[in-house]
TrEMBL record:
It catalyses: ITP + H2O = IMP + diphosphate + H(+); dITP + H2O = dIMP + diphosphate + H(+); XTP + H2O = XMP + diphosphate + H(+). InterPro entries: dITP/XTP_pyrophosphatase (IPR020922), ITPase-like_fam (IPR029001), RdgB/HAM1 (IPR002637). Mg(2+) binds at E42, D71. It comes from Virgibacillus oceani. It comes from the Bacteria. Its cofactor is Mg(2+). PANTHER family: INOSINE TRIPHOSPHATE PYROPHOSPHATASE (PTHR11067:SF9), INOSINE TRIPHOSPHATE PYROPHOSPHATASE/HAM1 PROTEIN (PTHR11067). This is dITP/XTP pyrophosphatase.
Amino acid sequence: MKQMIIATKNQGKAKEFKDFLAPFDIKAVSLLELPNTIDDIEETGTTFEQNAALKAETIADITGGPVLADDSGLVIDALDGKPGIFSARYAGESKDDNANIEKVLSELENISLEKRTARFVCVLAMAKPNEVTRFYKGTCDGHIANYPKGEYGFGYDPIFVPNGYSETMAELLPNEKNSISHRKNAFIQLEAWLKGIR
Ligand SMILES: O=c1[nH]c(=O)c2ncn([C@@H]3O[C@H](COP(=O)(O)OP(=O)(O)OP(=O)(O)O)[C@@H](O)[C@H]3O)c2[nH]1
Ligand SMILES: [Mg+2]
């Protein structure tokens, strides 16, 4: 089976990429599974694209092979786009999902449901040494619930209700999330490239 390195230390993302790539007979390998410890890559960019490129290109330089990276986040209209590229560390460096959720809910405390519109954004960067990095972007629109519900997924999934659903992303079964998510919508475009269409 072929392998593809995913430049992430996020177990939730890694699991989703394993599901996406399995039908292509490709094993997704995260940075946590490599034999050598990889230092954290500082995400100094100001856009999802810049941070995804930083992660993919740094690891492609180290490994010498093709690498896929994902930079993603939650964009909330009533918070002027926050937490955005700062989603992982919104409530502090410990990257605590529950603390991040609590911070968002408290900032939206007095905002009515119809004004709680938001979207998940995912930018994938595919880097290969000496090649131009390719980007694929996907989004998933929805709104922020009043309180967390559901056990699946990761990050802000317990407070994100996708458009057309009454459940949060964390109440949807993983295969359901993986059919509508921002990450899937970005991956669909990469898929076309993997199949040799583009
Ligand atoms: O509920 C969620 N469902 C998702 O599907 C999702 N995708 C992203 N996010 C949030 O956005 C941050 C990404 O930040 P990010 O791209 O820097 O990743 P990260 O720091 O977690 O790992 P790495 O890939 O950088 O190693 C994550 O931590 C989460 O808080 C999500 N939340
Ligand atoms: Mg990160």
